[in-house]
Write a structure and sequence with these properties.
Number of strands: 37
CATH class of the largest domain: Mainly Beta
Radius of gyration: 30 Å
CATH architecture of the largest domain: Sandwich
Number of domains: 3
Helix content: 10-25%
CATH topology of the largest domain: Immunoglobulin-like
Strand order of the largest sheet: 6-5-9-3-2-12-15-14
Distance between the termini: 68 Å
Shape: globular
Number of helices: 14
């Protein structure tokens, strides 16, 4: 899971930089825009009726002219009309930033009440940790505007200031999670870059009709937009980044490929560069052959050889997956940089990309055709080759061919078995490095059988409707890999706690679950196997002298994702998957089976569900299978999926009727 990062690029423009403690924001001298009586009286958005809020005005100014002296800056001003109580949530402002190279030195805000009264924000601005990725810790400035209520207008502005010598790869995200009535964007490129021959260009994406970029005499860029639709947050939707209209600015370095070049020329440059990096790193034949002699045997099949090589490189310590280390910790450990595969094999540690290159070297030494592939991970983006955007290719993996069989694998993805990619690297577009020739590829989509949760339970039902049970759960393929990856930092106690929480999410409220065994955690080729005991105080309900039991103890959770009647976005499952349940219900003493629900099967091709209950004398055998066989579906399919999961829930809850044998004798 190697990364080609583009979030922020440090450019040391001068040898010595001047530290500026605070930059006065442009908007501080302009003040707030006047508020019209019509906007204050507005009761709803006439273009999108029923919305909780809308953006009346937004302005973004990015200034990189003096990045060498003060760092580049971003100034943003937002005015929002609140329509409903639910819309008052927009009064809590969150401004993410990267503390390693930027600050938020200025914020201001105010609330204009429905009667025109103005309340300025004079509260506390908090600094909150959002997350940490690798060596980067992300923070946010947060504050809450006063007395936000339906009918009011809120507005705020802030300044994001980079450190001297820093220049962002700037991107305007034009849309928001609210409808935007009017928006203005301005970008001032860096002066020194122009003088040095680095020219700022832009790459548009999904621009709305009528949007035009204006280039001014001072080399700045400007765009004005009206009536931008909201990107609505919904469950099971594609990544917002692939749905949002945007404009990305970049600098073209003399001698580097120009994104305006034909794609074949642009990607050919990088294919040549990457091919040279591969050849240089693996050019240690003696070390590769010596290692290979320890791994494979002469009689091994091609598939067996590749699996053995994969298992060997999986043993290499992956530095890219480790926690952030301070400079002091890094110095104390004194890890020397790996310059080639011989270093990796000798030292036993490497970055994610170096692990993949080591696999390529060993595979080629064994006679296989193998090379590197760079893809756009589909949890964040979708690769479009004609955009000529190398920054999209954030993940690296390996292609290898054995005879007519092709494999896409990621040895650097520590917890994934051979032949299985992380879900976001599957069905992902990218570039395969075939010598100096780039080949546009799409990695395979996994089968539903490669992400299976298989649940088994034996329920002992008592006459009062309570149960005790033994349960087993197997997490296979992607499901097991993601468990291992998510809990890689947990000790056995932490893993047990997390698994208990997950499994209890499938069970009736009030269930008491105790996990007694977790197996195969360290063997990535096998399912994660979990065993436990279960008690439920009121699983069955009595009616007269009958007892009613739901068909399946494992409850469907997907219906919650389809609770809303309307849909704005396509339906996007991360990966195909299946659930398989086998439940034995052992009858309580003094009861017999009176009625079982009929077998049910719903087949939409992309989604299949079937459930049956069979009489086995003193027990009932219930089998259930749910399969989702695709990833992306048009929003027009939403009503069909909604009805499907509604029927799944209905049939899961269908009643098994048990009759008291004493009642039947009296009759």
């Amino acid at each position: 899971m190697t990364r080609i990062l583009r979030c922020a690029l440090q450019v040391m423009l001068v040898a010595a930089v001047i530290l500026v403690a605070r930059v006065t924001p442009m908007f501080a001298t302009v003040g707030w825009l006047p508020v019209s009586p019509e906007d204050l009286a507005l009761k709803d958005n006439p273009k999108e009726p029923g919305a909780d809020a809308m953006i009346l005005y937004r302005e973004v100014v990015v200034d990189a002219r003096k990045a060498n002296v003060s760092g580049d800056s971003l100034e943003e001003y937002v005015r929002i009309k609140i329509f409903t109580q639910a819309g008052t949530k927009y009064g809590h402002i969150v401004i993410p930033y990267d503390q390693s190279f930027e600050t938020i030195p200025y914020v201001a805000g105010r609330t204009i009440l429905p009667d025109g009264t103005i309340k300025d924000f004079d509260g506390q601005v908090l600094n909150s940790t959002l997350t940490r990725v690798g060596e980067t810790e992300y923070f946010a400035k947060t504050f809450t505007l006063p007395d936000v209520q339906p009918g009011c207008i809120i507005e705020y502005r802030f300044d994001r200031q980079a450190r001297p010598g820093w220049l962002h790869d700037e991107e305007w995200t034009l849309s928001s999670n609210m409808y935007t009535r009017e928006a203005h964007f301005t970008y001032y490129p860096n002066d020194i870059f122009y003088q040095a021959g680095y020219h700022a260009q832009y790459r548009p994406y999904l621009l709305p009709a009528g949007a035009k970029m204006k280039e001014n005499a001072d080399h700045s860029y400007a765009m004005e937009l009206q009536d931008l639709a909201a990107i609505v947050d919904e469950p099971l939707m594609p990544p917002k980044a692939v749905m949002e209209p945007s404009v990305e600015f970049y600098y073209v370095t003399p001698g580097q490929p120009d994104p305006t070049d034909p794609p074949a020329k642009f990607w050919g440059h990088y294919a040549k560069q990457w091919d040279g990096e591969i050849s240089h790193f693996i050019d240690k034949k003696d070390a590769l052959n010596q290692e290979l002699s320890k791994i494979v045997a002469g009689g091994d099949s091609p598939d067996t050889k590749l699996r053995k090589i994969y298992a060997r490189v999986e043993q290499i310590r992956n530095l890219s997956m480790e926690d952030y280390k301070t400079q002091k910790e890094t110095k104390a450990e004194d890890l020397k940089p790996d310059n080639n595969v011989a270093d990796v094999l000798d030292r036993g540690y490497a970055t994610g990309r170096q692990i993949n290159l080591t696999f390529i070297g060993l595979a080629r030494a064994a006679g296989f055709d193998a090379t590197e592939v760079f893809v756009a991970p589909r949890n964040t983006s979708i690769f479009v080759a004609t955009r000529n955007d190398v920054g999209e290719l954030r993940d690296g993996l390996v292609w290898v061919k054995a005879g007519s069989q092709e494999y896409y694998i990621d040895p650097s993805a520590r917890y994934y078995p051979f032949g299985l990619l992380p879900w976001y690297e599957s069905e992902a577009g990218g570039i395969r490095v075939d010598g100096h020739t780039p080949t546009i590829v799409t990695t395979p989509e996994p089968a539903a059988t490669q992400a299976t949760i298989e649940r088994t339970a034996s329920l002992n039902v008592k006459a009062d409707g309570s149960i005790s049970a033994n349960i087993q759960v197997d997490f296979t393929g992607l499901e097991g890999a993601m468990l291992r990856e998510d809990d890689r930092k947990e000790d056995p106690t932490g893993r047990t706690k997390d698994l208990e929480s997950r499994i209890k999410g499938w069970l009736p409220v009030g269930s008491e679950l105790a996990i007694t065994k977790i197996e195969n955690w360290d063997d990535i080729e096998k399912p994660v196997h979990v065993e436990g005991t279960l008690k439920i105080g009121s699983y069955g309900s009595t009616a007269a002298r009958d007892m009613l039991l739901p068909m399946d103890i494992f409850q469907a959770t997907q219906a919650g994702d389809f609770a809303q009647q309307t849909r704005h976005n396509p339906v996007y499952f991360s990966y195909p998957y299946q659930e398989i349940d086998s439940v034995t219900v052992n009858l309580p003493t003094g009861y017999k089976i009176d009625a079982l629900p009929k077998p049910q099967k719903i087949d939409l091709k992309a989604a299949i569900y079937e459930i049956t209950a069979a009489n086995q004398g003193n027990s009932i055998e219930i089998t259930r299978r749910l399969t989702i066989g695709g990833v992306l579906f048009a929003k027009e399919t939403y009503p069909t999926f909604r009805a499907f999961f509604g029927l799944v829930r209905t049939n899961d809850d269908a009643q098994v009727v048990l009759e008291s044998t004493q009642t039947s004798q009296l009759n």
